[in-house]
C-alpha cells in the first residue's frame, strides 16, 4: 500500500500503532454548571439571597451539641432512677417481684404474726441467779400458762417479757407439779389471749410451730410435724418431783427456754405446752435439740389451768389400782397388784392379777403408760379398758375415772 491510502493517512499520529506515542482521554464538558455557580445564578435572578456554607456548619454544630447534652442528661437521670448509675443491675426489678402483702392468709408467717404477741418470756429468780422459760397469755384478764418446772423455785413472783420487749411483774396463782402446769397472773391492759385448739383432734404428720425463748433467744419460732401422740412421759430430777403425761411428740427444734411455750397448729391454735426434750447428752445442762420434743396436750393443760384458777389447785385423775413394776410380758400389759375397794377399777370389776393391755384404745407396756394415759382424762371421764384375766381371752369394760382424795 501507498502512503495515500485513507486508512493510513494518520498512521504516523496513531497511538495504537506507535506504542511510544503519548495518549490521553478527553471527557466532554458537563452540561450543568458547578454547584458554586448555581447560588450565584439564583441570586442574580433575585429568587433567594446569596448564602455560603458557614451558617449551615454553625447550625449543624449547635444542633449536635444540644442533642448530645440532652441525651447525656436523660441517661444520667435514668441511671439514678434505677439506683445503678451505670453499674450492673442484679436481680429483678421490684415491680416484677411478688409483694410480701400477697402472702397467703393461712401461711406460717401469718400464723406467727397472729400468735407471737401472746407469747412471753418467763424469768424467775433463784439461788443460782434466775431460771428462764416461756409462757403464753390464756385470758384477756392476764392469766398466763407455763410449765411448773419453770416456776418451781419462784418466791411468788416472776418477771414476764412480752414480744414487744416490754416487761411486767406477775404473781404465781398455782402449780400442778405432776402435770407440769403452772399459772401466773399479770396486771396489764390490752392483752390478746391465744386461741385454744383440740389436742384430741391432731394427727401424726400435722404441721406445728414451737414458740418461745430457747437459750434466752426471745421470739423464736421453729417448725416441724407431730411425730407421735400419747407418747407417755415420766420426767423429773432424780429424787425430785415425778411428772406423768401422755405427750404430743414433735420434731420441731426445742431447747432449754422453750419450756412453757405454746405448740401451735397450722391454724394458729395452741395444741400443746412444750415441756421436755430427749437428748443424748449425759446431763440436762448439756442437753440440746435432736428432734425429740414433747408437749403436754392442751386439753389436759387447759383443764388443769382452769382448776388452778378456780380453786388454787388441780385434781389428779386416778383409776384406783396399784401396779406391779416388775411385771414383764412379751404380749405387753401391766398387772394389777391391788385395787381400792371404792375406786373406779373395783367398781368396774377389775381384780388383783388382771393384766391391763389397753386403755382408751392405746397400748399399755409399762406402769408409766397407764398412769400417764389416765392423767390425760378429766375426773368423771369414761374410758374403755381392755384386760386379760389369767390365761383367758382379752375382755373390755368401761371404767369411770375419778379424782384422788388429795
Account of the 3D structure:
The chain is of the alpha+beta class and 406 residues long. Among the domains are: 109-186, Thrombin, subunit H (Beta Barrel); 200-300, Thrombin, subunit H (Beta Barrel); 317-403, Pdz3 Domain. It contains seven helices and 21 strands. The strands form four sheets. A six-stranded antiparallel beta barrel has the order 1-2-3-6-5-4. Strand 4 and strand 5 (167-176) form a beta hairpin. The longest helix has 29 residues, at 54-82. The termini are far apart. The relative contact order is 0.09. The model is unreliable at 34-46 (pLDDT under 50).
> What share of residues is helical?
10-25%
Strand order of the largest sheet: 1-2-3-6-5-4
| Biggest sheet statistics | 6 strands, antiparallel, barrel
Q: Please identify the structural class as seen in this structure.
A: alpha+beta
Morphology call? elongated
> Over the alpha carbons, how many angstroms does the gyration radius reach?
47 Å
Residue ranges: pLDDT <50 for 5 or more in a row? 34-46
Report strand %. 25-35%
* Number of E-type strands: 21
CATH architecture type of the domain at 200-300: Beta Barrel
The H-level CATH homologous superfamily of the domain at 200-300, spelled out, is Trypsin-like serine proteases
**Number of helical stretches of at least 4 residues:** 7
State the end-to-end distance. 162 Å
CATH fold name of the domain at 200-300, please? Answer: Thrombin, subunit H
CATH class group of the domain at 200-300: Mainly Beta
Q: What do the pLDDT scores average to?
A: 83
Series of secondary-structure elements, N-terminal to C-terminal: HHHEEEHEEEEEEEEEEHEEEHEEHEEE
Amino acid at each position: 500500500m501507498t502512503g495515500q491510502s485513507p486508512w493510513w493517512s494518520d498512521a504516523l499520529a496513531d497511538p495504537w500503532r506507535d506504542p511510544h506515542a503519548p495518549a490521553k482521554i478527553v471527557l466532554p464538558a458537563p452540561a450543568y454548571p458547578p454547584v458554586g455557580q448555581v447560588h450565584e445564578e439564583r441570586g442574580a435572578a433575585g429568587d433567594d439571597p446569596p448564602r455560603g456554607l458557614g451558617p449551615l456548619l454553625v447550625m449543624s454544630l449547635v444542633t449536635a451539641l444540644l442533642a448530645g447534652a440532652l441525651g447525656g442528661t436523660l441517661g444520667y437521670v435514668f441511671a439514678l432512677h434505677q439506683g445503678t448509675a451505670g453499674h450492673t443491675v442484679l436481680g429483678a426489678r421490684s415491680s416484677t417481684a411478688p409483694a410480701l402483702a400477697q402472702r397467703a392468709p393461712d401461711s406460717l408467717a401469718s400464723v406467727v404474726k397472729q400468735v407471737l404477741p401472746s407469747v412471753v418470756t418467763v424469768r424467775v429468780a433463784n439461788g443460782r441467779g434466775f431460771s428462764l422459760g416461756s409462757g403464753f397469755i390464756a385470758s384477756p384478764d392476764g392469766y398466763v400458762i407455763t410449765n411448773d418446772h419453770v416456776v418451781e423455785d419462784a418466791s411468788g413472783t416472776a418477771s414476764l417479757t412480752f414480744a414487744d420487749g416490754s416487761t411486767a411483774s406477775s404473781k404465781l396463782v398455782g402449780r400442778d407439779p405432776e402435770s407440769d402446769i403452772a399459772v401466773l397472773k399479770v396486771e396489764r391492759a390490752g392483752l390478746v389471749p391465744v386461741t385454744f385448739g383440740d389436742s384430741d383432734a391432731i394427727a401424726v404428720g400435722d404441721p406445728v410451730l414451737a414458740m418461745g425463748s430457747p437459750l434466752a433467744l426471745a421470739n423464736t419460732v421453729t417448725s416441724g410435724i407431730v411425730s407421735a401422740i400419747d407418747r407417755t412421759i415420766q420426767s423429773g430430777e432424780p429424787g425430785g418431783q415425778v411428772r406423768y403425761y401422755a405427750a404430743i411428740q414433735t420434731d420441731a427444734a426445742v431447747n432449754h427456754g422453750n419450756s412453757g411455750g405454746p405448740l401451735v397448729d397450722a391454724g394458729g391454735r395452741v395444741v400443746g405446752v412444750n415441756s421436755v426434750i430427749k437428748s443424748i447428752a449425759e446431763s440436762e445442762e448439756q442437753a440440746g435439740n435432736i428432734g425429740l420434743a414433747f408437749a403436754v396436750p392442751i386439753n389436759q393443760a387447759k383443764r388443769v389451768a382452769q382448776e388452778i384458777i378456780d380453786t388454787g389447785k388441780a385434781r389428779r385423775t386416778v383409776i384406783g389400782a396399784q401396779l406391779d413394776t416388775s411385771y414383764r410380758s412379751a404380749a405387753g400389759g401391766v398387772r394389777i397388784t391391788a385395787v381400792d375397794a371404792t375406786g373406779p377399777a373395783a367398781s368396774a370389776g377389775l381384780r388383783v392379777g388382771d393384766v391391763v393391755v389397753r386403755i382408751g384404745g392405746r397400748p399399755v407396756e409399762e406402769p408409766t403408760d397407764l398412769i400417764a394415759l389416765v392423767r390425760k382424762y378429766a375426773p368423771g371421764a369414761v374410758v374403755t379398758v381392755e384386760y386379760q384375766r389369767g390365761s383367758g381371752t382379752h375382755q373390755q369394760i368401761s371404767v369411770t375415772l375419778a379424782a384422788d382424795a388429795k
